[in-house]
Amino acid sequence: MRYLSVIPIFLALLTACGGGEEAAPELPLRAIRYGEVVTDDGSTSQSYTGVVTAAGETPLSFRVGGTIREMKVKLGDRTRRGQLIATLDPVDLQVQSSQASANYQAAEAQVESGETQLIAARAAYDRTLKLYENNSVSLSEFEQARSQFKSSQAQVQAAKSQLAASGASVQASRNQVSYTRLTAPFAGVITRVEVERNEFAGSGKAIVTLSTEEDPEVEVNLPENRIGAIERDMRVTIAFPSLPGREYAGVVSEVAYAAGDAPSYPVTVRIGEATSSIRPGMAANVRFTFGEGNDAGPLLLTPIESVAEGPEGRFVYLLTAGAGGTYVANKQAVTIGDLHTAGFAVSAGLAAGDKVATAGIKSLLDGMEVRLME
Q1: Is residue 24 situated within a structural domain?
Q2: The pTM is what?
Q3: Could you tell me if residue 11 is inside a domain?
Q4: What does each C-alpha distance from 208 to 53, 219, 264 come to in angstroms?
Q5: H or E stretch including 157?
Q6: 194 and 247 share a domain?
Q7: Contacts of 197 (CB under 8 A, 6+ apart)
Q8: By residue range, what is the domain housing residue 36?
């Protein structure tokens, strides 16, 4: 009887230890990243960051120094050609111009006086010459008359030279006065103002920067390993981060032969069909396409991340559609060629449109069921 009482306890322990059959828990499917095998013409492309600049951008400065008396424009103002931008106080230069005019008048008076003396000296010389030919005057009197005539001629010539110099000084001083007025050399927009009213501005100091509104350009710097492939009239594609959703066609208009301060080469790109939304100073991404394609025909490219290498050579995990929206990762040997921007060239093992795993390849197993990460 004592043994019969132990049986129920033994059966209970047996059940608790797994004597009953239970279903194994279902593990979740592994989510993986993937890419597609694509065809390509064999060319490569690369984007470089640049900055929009105006096709015509000129710092305007006075040709003389002085105190700013008036500023006729403000930042962002549109100007027409010949419009007054700023003026300097012209008082000192006007005084110099007046002095030059006075010197010119004095020189004119000297010329008039010298010409009067020359007429008298010529008459005396002619009269003395006739008398000397008739032996009516001595040689010394004749020589004196001729000397006075020559001296009067020299004085008139010197006075005329002084008059010409004074005239040039008058014109120069008038130019200096006119230089106190700064005008726009072309129609455009004031993109920078460097000075304020009553500030002293030296000769050549930038007062404002005037930029054209039409035909903006992009300045971009290219590395030395790419500059040799850039030519004028080369077509590019331009995108602006501040103007998402649209791309603009562009054409290379200038290619620097020498590098600047940095180890890069400036390249200027003209924007086709530019809109008013594109303004100087905006960032731009310029995409250049290098190469002329593959002579043997289109290339088959697989993503760089999809290719792995094992004891038997290079392979990818080819994702084949399964049931219920899942995929099966099958190990697929591939033969690859050159590396291109879009991936490795594939000569055997894959077809266009195939899906291949691009992440977590080391943790995949041949025949593993997975789901694709959107």
Answers
A1: no
A2: 0.53
A3: no
A4: 16, 21, 30
A5: helix 139-178
A6: no
A7: 68, 69, 70, 71
A8: 30-42+298-372
CA angle 218, 219, 221 (to 5 degrees): 135
Position 23 in a domain: no
Residue 281 domain flag: yes
Looking up residue 334, the CATH number of its domain turns out to be: 2.40.420.20
User: How many domains does the chain contain in total?
Assistant: 4
Q: 263-320, pLDDT tens digit by residue?
A: 789 999 999 888 888 888 899 999 998 765 555 567 888 998 999 988 889 999 999 9
Cα separation of 229 and 322, whole Å? 47
Length of the chain: 374
Are 32 and 369 in contact by the 8 Å Cβ rule? The answer is: no
pLDDT in tens, 182-241: 999 999 999 899 999 999 999 999 999 998 888 889 999 988 888 888 899 999 999 999
Q: Across 226-367, where does the E strand assignment appear?
A: 235-240, 243-255, 264-271, 283-290, 299-302, 308-310, 313-321, 327-333, 335-340, 343-348, 355-357
Q: For residues 73 and 202, state if they share a domain.
A: yes
129 and 201, same structural domain?
no
User: Using one digit for the tens of pLDDT, what is the confidence trace for 98-110?
Assistant: 999 999 999 899 9
CA distance 247 to 45: 15
The answer to whether the beta carbons of residues 271 and 216 sit under 8 Å apart is yes
DSSP per-residue string spanning 199-223: -EE-TT-EEEEEE-SSS-EEEEEEE
Strand order in the sheet with 343-348: 38-40, 299-302, 343-348, 335-340
Q: Are residues 192 and 238 in the same domain?
A: no
DSSP string, 42-77: S-EEEEEEEEEE-SSEEEEE-SS-EEEEEE---TT-
Closest CA to 57 of 209, 216, 277: 209
